[in-house]
Design brief:
Helices cover 46% and strands 23% of the residues. Helix 2 packs across helix 3, helix 4 packs across helix 5 and helix 5 packs across helix 6. The longest helix has 25 residues.
Length: 222
């Protein structure tokens, strides 16, 4: 929370700080949304249940806001939030959060930037829903991560875990791992110090096009 002075941060943590252990539920889908959370330490997984299946929607890092649905009156949580490690959060009621926004243009800008990013992520996830091939979904997610890092050709390294790829591709973690193994065996990617190294982005993009053509051909022959 670099937008707030250290003195203000300490004051907020004293009054509104909470700690959650690894695996602990911060809020559940369907709960009344009464607080907005600002993640200070650790990582949080936002999960959505569709029928009997849970899907990761976002993986949050320090500085991220979540639970912003509480800004709307009488709102229920549309997803669950679970600590992926020991975490520290600020849990702010809407009035306190609005006071913080009014007192800090930088915090307001962070909120707008995050909401725009969430909208873009939702659009990406919708695009991936239209893809039927699992490998295509993972390749598409990797190409977008490389683009987010400013790399549209040449090589790129992206720091992304299987859980994060699961959230971005809309697949379960085991399916993501199988797709990653296939891409490694095809020498499209390498795993280097917990990062995905793409040595040739253009080659990966050509693979994505080829997979799309194969999927289209299967659809026509069905």
């Amino acid at each position: 929370m670099s937008e707030i002075s250290s003195a203000e941060r300490d004051r907020l943590l004293e009054h509104f700080g909470r700690r959650y252990g690894n695996g602990e539920v911060i809020f559940r889908e369907g709960d009344a949304a009464r607080e907005i959370f600002m993640l200070q330490e650790g990582r949080v997984r936002v999960v959505k249940r569709v029928r009997s299946v849970e899907r990761s929607v976002h993986i949050l890092k320090p500085g991220d806001l979540f639970g912003e649905g509480a800004l709307l009156p009488n709102t229920l949580r549309s997803s669950s939030a679970v600590a992926l490690s020991d975490v520290v959060v600020l849990a702010l009621d809407p009035d306190t959060f609005n006071q913080l926004l009014q007192g800090s243009g930088a915090v307001a800008a962070r909120l707008v930037q995050q909401l725009v990013r969430r909208l873009r992520d939702a659009e990406d996830q919708f695009e991936n829903m239209l893809l039927r091939d699992h490998t295509s979904k993972v390749v598409n997610a990797l190409l977008k991560l490389a683009s987010d890092a400013g790399r549209t050709s040449g090589s790129a390294q992206v720091a992304v875990s299987p859980l994060e790829l699961s959230a971005r591709s809309g697949l379960d973690v085991d399916t993501v791992k199988r797709a990653v193994i296939q891409l490694r065996e095809g020498q499209y990617i390498r795993i280097v110090e917990e990062k995905v190294a793409i040595d040739d982005i253009d080659a990966l993009r050509r693979l994505f096009t080829l997979l799309g053509m194969q999927e289209q051909a299967r659809g026509q022959s069905a």
